[in-house]
């Protein structure tokens, strides 16, 4: 598989080509500021010792403290963490929040370890990152296989809740964090609805992935008169051109752990769902699912990237040629980090904002990011991904300190 950091660099270069941002800025942003690699000694429950590798990459902090999740996965390596950290710098700049970009990871599969062992790994990672993370320096959050529980351990080990976001509400978390990614994606879509040449009769959506992002988006879209015609999860996909009953589908998923077998829906393959005729396609599962192979067959009018990295650069070009707008991940799923920033701000000021307050601030931030991205794409006569990266490069250039 292609080195994901190369993908990130490629995206920066593609945006740099259409803007007049200084070459110095591009050179600096093509290198993370700091890469930290640590060895974590884990005492297993059976008394044996295992050495585990951990990372924190701090890509850029010109606009504020490094910010980004920590991932637990057996395939985590430095290249992946560098790529994810780089994307965070761009995402926070596009969202217009005063934070930079970072990412962490630990190379292990938590599903093969007990809760007590995961807690020891998490606390040891925090100790190993002494002087690296901190509320005004670098603020981690959940990512793949890390949950609010890990954030509670991180905050406790460090001794300050503001060191991390994504905590449960009773441990200093924010209202609205659970829905923030999907809600932010919806606000972006709503802001650009007419620009994207969507018509009210095209309010049909197919969603790949029925986890936090996908399932919450299905619920929100239904509330706004969108018809959810197909959804998938790792076991398969279900389709009903008349629209699925999302509430009943959520119950079915909770009871059976899959969307497959939902009454009143046709089954289809995970690949076929991407090629359905619909107004909106929302990938909300994995990377690299829209490629040069299937992009020519995509029939959606708009792709809303709730997942990180679902479209390859080659597929981006094919979709642009076909007139299909791709609302890029760095904009479409930036609602998550935006409410994370709100959580951090509440912790720093010892405040508690209400759910309507958080929602109103999220809506303003996402609508503004969407509008500015759209304007850049129009100005540079390019796609929304380059438009979004161009906006970020502009904001990062303004924040660049004197060399
Ligand atoms: P999740 O684990 O809650 O859900 C993932 C879903 O994808 C599950 O329903 C799973 O069954 C499904 N899936 C896995 N393999 C699949 C396959 N081959 N075909 C179809 N579906 C498949 O994860 P999430 O938090 O919803 O994250 C999903 C994506 O959104 C990731 O790319 C993540 O990085 C991105 N994202 C999430 C957030 C957030 O706040 N949750 C924020 C930003 C970005």
Characterize the biggest β-sheet. Answer: 7 strands, mixed
Number of helices: 14
- What CATH calls the topology of the largest domain is Rossmann fold
Task: Give the CA-based shape.
Answer: globular
CATH class of the largest domain: Alpha Beta
Parts with pLDDT < 50 across at least 5 consecutive residues: none
- Amount of beta strand: 15-25%
Please name the CATH architecture of the largest domain. 3-Layer(aba) Sandwich
Ligand kinds = nicotinamide-adenine-dinucleotide
Considering the protein shown, what is the CATH homologous superfamily of the largest domain?
Answer: NAD(P)-binding Rossmann-like Domain
Radius of gyration: 21 Å
The structure class reads alpha/beta
How many structural domains can be distinguished in the coordinates? Answer: 2
Share of helical residues: 40-55%
Distance between the termini: 36 Å
Neighbour order of strands in the largest sheet: 9-8-7-6-10-11-12
Mean pLDDT: 96
H/E series = HHEEEHEHEHHEHEEHEHEEHEHHHH
Structure description:
This protein has helices at residues 4-18, 23-29, 78-95, 115-128, 148-158, 180-192, 212-223, 246-256, 270-273, 313-321, 329-332, 335-349, 355-379, 384-399, and strands at 34-43, 49-60, 66-72, 101-106, 138-142, 204-208, 227-233, 236-239, 266-268, 280-283, 302-304, 325-327. The strands form two sheets. It has a seven-stranded mixed sheet with strand order 9-8-7-6-10-11-12. The two termini are 36 Å apart. The chain contains 14 helices and twelve strands. α7 (212-223) links the parallel β6 and β7. α4 crosses α5 (148-158) and α13 (355-379) packs across α14. The chain is of the alpha/beta class and 403 residues long. It has two domains: 32-162, Leucine Dehydrogenase, chain A, domain 1 (Rossmann fold), CATH 3.40.50; 180-332, Rossmann fold, CATH 3.40.50. The mean pLDDT is 96. The protein binds nicotinamide-adenine-dinucleotide. Nicotinamide-adenine-dinucleotide binds at residues 181, 208-214, 232-234, 270, 284-286, 306-308, 333, 336.
């Amino acid at each position: 598989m292609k080195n994901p950091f190369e993908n990130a660099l490629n995206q920066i270069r593609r945006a740099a080509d259409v803007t007049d941002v200084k070459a110095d800025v591009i050179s600096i942003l093509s290198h993370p500021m700091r890469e930290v690699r640590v060895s974590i000694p884990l005492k297993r429950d059976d008394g044996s010792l295992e050495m585990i590798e951990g990372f924190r990459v701090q890509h850029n902090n010109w606009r504020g403290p490094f910010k980004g999740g920590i991932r637990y996965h057996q395939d985590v390596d430095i290249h992946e963490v560098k790529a994810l950290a780089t994307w965070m710098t761009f995402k926070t700049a596009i969202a217009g929040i005063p934070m930079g970009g970072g990412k962490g990871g630990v190379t292990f599969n938590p599903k093969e370890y007990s809760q007590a062992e995961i807690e020891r790994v998490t606390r040891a990672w925090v100790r190993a990152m002494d002087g690296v993370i901190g509320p005004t320096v670098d603020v981690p959050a959940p990512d793949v296989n890390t949950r609010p529980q890990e954030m509670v351990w991180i905050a406790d080990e460090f001794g300050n809740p503001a060191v991390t976001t994504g905590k449960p509400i009773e441990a200093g978390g924010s209202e609205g964090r659970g829905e923030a990614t999907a809600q932010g994606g919806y606000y972006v879509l709503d802001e650009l609805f007419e620009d994207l040449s969507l018509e009210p009769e095209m309010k049909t959506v197919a969603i790949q992935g029925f986890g936090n992002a996908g399932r919450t988006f299905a619920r929100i879209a239904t509330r706004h008169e969108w018809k959810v015609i197909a959804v998938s999860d790792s076991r398969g996909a279900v389709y009903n051109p008349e629209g699925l009953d999302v509430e009943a589908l959520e119950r079915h998923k909770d009871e059976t752990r899959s969307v497959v077998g939902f009454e009143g829906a046709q089954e289809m393959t995970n690949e076929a769902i991407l090629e359905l005729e619909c107004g909106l396609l929302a990938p909300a599962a994995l990377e690299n699912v829209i490629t040069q192979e299937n992009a020519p067959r995509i029939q959606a009018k708009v792709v809303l990237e709730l997942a990180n990295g679902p479209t390859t650069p080659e597929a981006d070009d094919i979709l642009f040629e076909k007139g299909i707008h791709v609302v890029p991940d760095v904009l479409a799923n930036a609602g998550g980090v935006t409410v994370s920033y709100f959580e951090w701000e509440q912790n720093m000021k010892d405040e508690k904002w209400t759910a309507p307050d958080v929602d109103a601030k999220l809506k303003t931030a996402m609508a503004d990011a969407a509008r500015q991205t759209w304007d850049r794409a129009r100005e540079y006569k390019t796609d929304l991904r380059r438009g979004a990266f161009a906006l970020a490069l502009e904001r990062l250039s303004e924040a660049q300190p004197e060399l």
